[in-house]
Fold:
Amino acid sequence: MGVAENMRSLIQRIFFNNWLRKLISLILSFVIWYMVYQSMTTTRTVASVPIRIINLPDGKTFQGMLANGYLSRKVNLSLTGRKIVIEDVSPADLEVVIDATKEVMKSSTVQIEKRHLVSFNPNFNVGRHLAKIDAKPIHFKMLPLVEDLIPVHVMKPIGEAPRGFQFLDMWPYQLNLRVKGPEDVITRLKTKGIKLNLNLADVSSEKLEEMTYNKNKHVVSYFVPEEFKQVLLPELSDKPIPMTDKDAKFLRIDFIRSKKIPIPFPIPVQLYVAPDCPLNIPSQSLYIGNSDMIQNMKGLKYLAPTVYAQGVSELFIKIVANMMTLSVNLNLHGDSQISWSIQFIDSQQLEDRYINAMLTEVKDIELEGMNPRWREEYLRNRFRNYMNRLELITEGDQPLDFRLEMKGKEICLLPPEAK
Structure:
């Protein structure tokens, strides 16, 4: 009991004897600590603070200045001030504002001071909480501000075409973008041009099916949405710049349905001998030999297997089917001494027939809004693209192929070797 009484007596002396004086002392200690803490200063570096220019003279700009008035470069600031405030300041809370008319016109070098600093943080008052600011001087180079058109090259899209479709082409191949900026930057961009990259992965097969108002329509034009018709030019803007060309509304990616189309006529086979081909026998004595791949009709050689076209439209095949020939090419120079290719007879006439058919026979509402000159150029490019991408396949959906052998005067087309 004596020990317990001693403990109670000790606690009473510590906490209850002269308790008012002790409470006042505790409050005073806290007040003194708080005042000392609030008055403590510290120095801290805040990196990458943006720089904004105001009151820029007409027709002038600065090297690295963006359209929104900020410079592409940023500055590191060493801030000395109230510790409790300075420790919580971030680059997003600050910006350096330079008056071009008052300062840069007088000197190309500006030393950053407190008056240049703007705070967006309501808890950080530059005048009250900041004691000193240190930073490297900013050097400015004033340049003429020019406005001009720069070419935008629409690149072949990357990625895979949606299921059930094949990429055919895009149109137009070039647009123009009107921009403002430093003279040296605009001159360089105008000379070199910029690229607009598209991605086939942004197009879904479901979207193409929805756009196909005619299920028999082979070519489906996907008009590129506005959000993809933008280019990024870090020298001029920190955000993508939308296309300003009025013809940008025509920007499209053309797809064609993955469908094999029967060739309605047998394809003639002819022999071509290069003029400089070194032969020990007269070229006129050479001939295409008989084989399972060749059939004779009225004294002429034709391709025997049934073949189909892929990667083109039915209208294209309808127009060129009776004007196609398979050319066996003999050239004893290099590795490929004998090869074959599909040739079109009077391709210019075929192209004109296709254009006339597309403009008169085929009702395509997507073409009606185009300028007539653009529309014809667009269709001519499509026809030439068809000629380049035509692929012949067999009934078993395999690419048409041969073994080509020369036996004396005879050129033989033989079935490909089994793999």
